[in-house]
Amino acid sequence: MKTNIGKKVAGAIALALALAGGVGAARAATNILSGNECQAFYPPDVVPDGQGVYHTTSGTENISSNKGVRLVMCPVLRDNTGTTGGLQKLVVRTTVASGFSGATQCFGMTHTMYGSIKVGTWQTAASTGSSAMTWTNLTQSDNGSGAYDIQCNVVYAGTINSIEYQEP
Questions:
Q1: Where are the beta strands (DSSP E) in 57-128?
Q2: Rounded CA gap, 26 and 123, in Å?
Q3: How far is CA 102 from the centre of its chain?
Q4: What is the pTM of this model?
Q5: Which one of 14, 26, 131, 155 is at 20 to 30 Å from 43 when CA atoms are compared?
Q6: 116-157, pLDDT tens digit by residue?
Q7: What is the signed CA dihedral for 46, 52, 55, 56, rounded to 10 degrees?
């Protein structure tokens, strides 16, 4: 009788692990963040006319009253701290509203636990419609510390829609 109950318990545990992805299941190779992760950096939220960076279902949009460029910062979650390989790939998807033009520019970077930039490069989006900026060279990070960030100059009527990235 004990053997039969033991087999049922072991079978139930095995089934639960299989349904949950098992012990030590591999994490997703690609992570995707909403563009809403980005926050206004300059001008700050306290300027008298409102800083013009809004969060919508489309992402973070620049609809400032003076139609100027807005600087935003986008954190990128580092979930593999056991490597110094940085990011294998980083993609920032943007759009410019119909009837407007201007190229959003973003600086993708990795930095140390003390905030020093290890590696970083600029990318420029298309000046109309939808665009994707892709980095494949952010390949250095500190083992067990440091972080990833994106700094973007978002044009008027521009939106940061999503951020996709892969860690080694």
A1: 59-62, 70-76, 89-96, 105-111, 117-124
A2: 31
A3: 22
A4: 0.78
A5: 131
A6: 898 999 999 999 999 999 999 888 877 777 889 999 999 999
A7: 150
